[in-house]
Amino acid sequence: MANNEWRQGWFLAAQRCESPFFNTRPNGEVSLLVIHNISLPAGCFGTPYIEDLFLGKLDCAADPSFADLKGLEVSAHFLIRRDGAVLQFVSCDQRAWHAGLSSFEGRSGCNDFSIGIELEGTDEVDFEPVQYERLTELTSKLMRHYPGISRDRIVGHSDIAPGRKTDPGPHFDWRSYLASLAEL
């Protein structure tokens, strides 16, 4: 474990934006990585609204589509912006609230043992090359720091919440992403 890269579950190379929406992992286990996509409003990129949502500061009057988000308490560990900026909202040692109703290998409550990475994007558009670069770098560092995460324990939100979620979506290039991890 590289002490110069991590401090108490915080990745030091990421911009730290502390969310109030987290709690303690029941047994401290970190053994799953969940890839998501998000944009607010849907299909709009580069807005401050994703951070506002994860920080509990979203002005739900700012866009009509935000009405359903009023009072929502949600977070992810990381967000990778379209320009490659990496933000961290919750220590990886804590439980972020990103997966919702979920199950992996017959085990429910994936938030208990997973790390959530949001990619700024949608199901309808390709992700940026720099997002894949940052995702690969971050995944590699997470796998070294949290050895319970292996290539076969990296999934999409759609894999752990089928029928309820579709992200990261059909434009996410799983083959290229997983191949880039094998090259490290």
Automatic annotation (TrEMBL):
InterPro entries: Amidase/PGRP_sf, Amidase_domain, NAMLAA_amidase_2
Cited SMART domains: Ami_2
EC number(s) on file: 3.5.1.28
Gene Ontology MF, one: N-acetylmuramoyl-L-alanine amidase activity
Principal location: cytoplasm
Keyword S-adenosyl-L-methionine found: no
Cofactor: Zn(2+)
Record's keyword annotation contains Zinc: yes
Keywords assigned by UniProt, alphabetized: Cell wall biogenesis/degradation, Cytoplasm, Hydrolase, Metal-binding, Zinc
Superkingdom as given in the UniProt entry: Bacteria
Catalysed reactions listed for this entry: Hydrolyzes the link between N-acetylmuramoyl residues and L-amino acid residues in certain cell-wall glycopeptides
Subcellular localization(s) per the UniProt record: Cytoplasm
Enzyme class, spelled out: hydrolase
Name of the featured protein: 1,6-anhydro-N-acetylmuramyl-L-alanine amidase AmpD
Organism of this sequence: Shewanella sedimentimangrovi
Gene field: ampD
